[in-house]
Structure formats: C-alpha cells, structure tokens
Amino acid sequence: MKLINLQGVTKRYQSGEVSVTALKSVDVEIDTRSFVTFIGPSGSGKSTLLNLIGCLDKPSQGKVFINNVDVGLFNRTEAAAFRGKTIGFVFQNFNLIPVLTVYENVEYPLLMLDRLPPKERRDRILQLLEKVGMTDQKDKYPNQISGGQKQRVAVARALVTNPQIVLADEPTANLDHATAFKVINIMHEMKNAFGTTFIFSTHDPKIVGEAEILYTLEDGMITHREIKNKQ
Ligand code: ADP
Ligand code: MG
C-alpha cells in the first residue's frame, strides 16, 4: 500500500472571470518512510500540490488517497482532525509564535491534541529539541534566534505529534545555501530517526542534492521523476 496516492489530480482556481489550472492531471505515489522533493519554478503548482496532500484544499478532479483514505471526501472538521494526527507542517516563513519560547512553540501542537501526560509531553519536547540541536536555546524567543535556528524549531514542532507525514513548503526559501543544507540534513536525520515521510518543495535547483525522490513540476504538470539515492 502506498502512503500517498494522487490519481489524475487537477486543481483549478477561479477568481472572478479568470480560471487558473494550477495542477493538470497529476499522478504521484509516495511510499512510507521516504524523502520526496518537488522542484519547480514559482507558480508551477508546488504549494497547490502540498496543500492537497495536507488536506487544506480539495482537488477539482481526481483523487488524493492517504493510507487508502480518499481525503477529498472529508468535511472541514474531519480534515482538521486528520491533519492533527497525521501531518506536520513546516513553512517558508517559519510561522513560530513570537510570544512563546522555543520550548513552548514545540509544545503548542501537543497542547492542541491534549493526549499526552505532562511528563511524557516534556520528554518528547526535550527529545526533539535535542535532535534538532536547539536544547541550549529552548528558553529564547523566536526574535532571539537565527533563521536557520527558527526552521530547526519548526521541524521539531512539526514532528512533536509524531505524524506520519511532514510537509515542508519551501522551508529553505528564506535561508542562505549553507543554512538551507543544514535544515535539509536535519530533515533527513529526522526521517531516519522517526521513519517520518518528508515531502519538501523548493524552487532552487542548488539545494536538491540530497533528494531521494525528485519530482519536477512545470506549469502544473510533472515533467520528470527521478529516484536518486533512496535510503
Ligand atoms: P508554487 O507554489 O509552485 O509557486 P502555486 O501552487 O502557489 O505554485 O500556484 C500555482 C498556480 O496557481 C499559479 O498560477 C498561482 O497564481 C495559482 N494560484 C495559487 N493559489 C491560488 C488561489 N488561491 N487563487 C487563484 N490562483 C491561485
Ligand atoms: Mg509555493
């Protein structure tokens, strides 16, 4: 069974008279415990694709299956519940909460889920902060740490609920190349440590070196699929 299966997915956006077809009959299969990169220029449909996998939007045509469940059939409440337990998100702009410390930012999704006793919650947060190398910074606020450090915190936050899938939409777009590589390496380490499937998008051909499975998107279509160094 595939973890994620997109079958003939088309997504059209309608704004007034104008219709934009952001994805054109896209087929994608993603195995569990994989690290998948989508590369394509701005406007090629990367965010649209990740939003569909993340149950933030629905296809106009075609189907998105996750664990054999047709997620396009979810209503809003079902989609939110599914996201909460299955998917972690990492964003381009880090999206940390400025009034919370590093520790509290990582804790936040766990409080939303409210399913862990306090001791286990604390252990889990500290374990993740350790794994992303942010233990020393745990009491700092987001404006006191660098962009690369913010993204490490965001990776820890995405993983804290132990999701099967982490979606990272251009997580390196606001980082210099050296820092971007460090963040990608951390995502690889997390994939290996926790067996989480990472789906990562970028417009920057320079930072796909570590990709295991690389899809190229152009104008809403997948034009190339390459299996590189699958681990
Ligand atoms: P990428 O993430 O690769 O830059 P997007 O998925 O954001 O690409 O966008 C793909 C296409 O869909 C673009 O032409 C974009 O302008 C359009 N688009 C994206 N989101 C919307 C929206 N909410 N409404 C209208 N058009 C949209
Ligand atoms: Mg985008």
Description:
- By secondary structure, the protein is an alpha/beta fold.
- The protein has a single domain (31-45, 77-227), classed as P-loop containing nucleotide triphosphate hydrolases (Rossmann fold), CATH 3.40.50.
- The chain is 33% helix and 29% strand.
- The protein has six helices and ten strands; from the N terminus they run βββαββαβαααβαβββ.
- It has helices spanning 46-53, 76-86, 102-113, 118-131, 147-159, 177-194; strands spanning 4-15, 18-30, 35-39, 61-66, 69-70, 87-90, 165-169, 197-202, 213-218, 221-227.
- Strands 6-7-8-3-9-10 form a six-stranded mixed β-sheet, sandwiched between helices. The chain has a four-stranded antiparallel β-sheet with strand order 2-1-4-5.
- Strand 1 and strand 2 (18-30) form a beta hairpin.
- The radius of gyration is 17 Å and the shape is globular.
- The structure holds adenosine-5'-diphosphate (ADP) and magnesium ion (MG).
- Residues 13, 15, 20, 22, 40, 42-48 line the site of adenosine-5'-diphosphate.
Q: Which features would summarize this protein structure in a list?
A:
231 residues, alpha/beta, Rossmann fold, six-stranded mixed β-sheet, 6 helices, 10 strands, 29% strand, globular, binds adenosine-5'-diphosphate, binds magnesium ion
CATH topology: Rossmann fold
- State the total count of DSSP E strands: 10
The low-confidence runs, each spanning 5 or more residues with pLDDT under 50, are none
Shape: globular
Structural class: alpha/beta
- What letter string, H or E per element, gives the SSE order? EEEHEEHEHHHEHEEE
CATH architecture: 3-Layer(aba) Sandwich
The mean pLDDT is 94
Distance between the termini: 19 Å
Bound molecules: adenosine-5'-diphosphate, magnesium ion
How do the strands of the widest beta sheet line up side by side? 6-7-8-3-9-10
Count of the domains: 1
Helix % is: 25-40%
The percent range for strand residues is 25-35%
Which CATH class?
Alpha Beta
Our count of helices gives: 6
The CATH H-level superfamily is P-loop containing nucleotide triphosphate hydrolases
Radius of gyration: 17 Å
Q: Give a quick account of the main beta sheet: strands, pairing sense, barrel closure.
A: 6 strands, mixed
